[in-house]
Design a protein that fits this description.
Length: 216
């Protein structure tokens, strides 16, 4: 549950976009994912308070414990088996979890190696290409905008990056997003931390603009 102080936070809209998950997934699956993204959102708010040295910021030891618990909850909900096959989870479930993991490895538990990001980028593309997801894009276009953005940021393969840009081109057109601030506003309703992610986001928009001369 979000506390009163969190509701008054500068980034209090963080995670609110995930509410539509309950309409798209089985109750047990949506409940599990909502619990994980809520933890990620709350940790981000606490970290932002600490970085900004606000009066109600948690002490460093408590923040570290919250970080560990948040990452453990995310990893414990992994929908893959050891050979990276989904354990009877829907493609959308796997895509959301994978995108949340990209966010976590950028913000919560940053890692300097590229391999996990490349694998997550490939996995997100695979799940988004599944007909079970592709045929329902109109039901959750903003959620899919966030998932696609995280996948694009994670990927390092040029051809795969181009695939993500082509999807983002269609989504931004559909949602009438005309510039980076407009895209950022939508991403911040899911999981997005400006202090660590804006550089990646601005580069993503620049690449998207370069791939489509009609985007300003």
């Amino acid at each position: 549950m979000i506390t009163t102080s969190e509701q008054d936070h500068l980034h209090s809209n963080l995670g609110t976009g995930f509410s539509e998950i309950s309409k798209l997934l089985k109750p047990q699956d949506s409940s599990q994912l909502l619990s994980v993204v809520t933890r990620l959102s709350r940790y981000t708010l606490a970290m932002d308070d600490y970085v900004a040295a606000r009066l109600d910021a948690p002490p460093l030891n408590r923040l570290a414990n919250q970080r560990d618990a948040t990452q453990h909850a995310l990893m414990s909900s992994c929908p893959w088996t050891s050979d990276f096959k989904s354990e009877a989870k829907s493609p959308l479930h796997v895509a959301i979890w994978s995108a949340a993991t990209v966010y976590s490895l950028l913000v919560v538990f940053p890692i300097p190696v590229a391999d996990p990001f490349a694998r997550l980028g490939q996995e997100i593309r695979l799940q988004l290409s599944d007909p079970m997801v592709y045929n329902r894009w109109h039901e959750a276009d903003k959620l899919l905008l966030w998932i696609t953005s995280m996948g694009a940021i994670a990927t390092i393969d040029h051809s795969e990056r181009f695939w993500y840009l082509s999807v983002l081109d269609r989504l931004t057109h559909r949602l009438r997003i005309a510039d980076w601030p407009g895209l950022k506003q939508e991403l911040q309703n899911f999981l997005w931390y400006p202090k660590t992610s804006d550089v990646d986001g601005e580069k993503l928009w620049k690449d998207l603009r370069s791939s489509n001369p009609f985007i300003t």
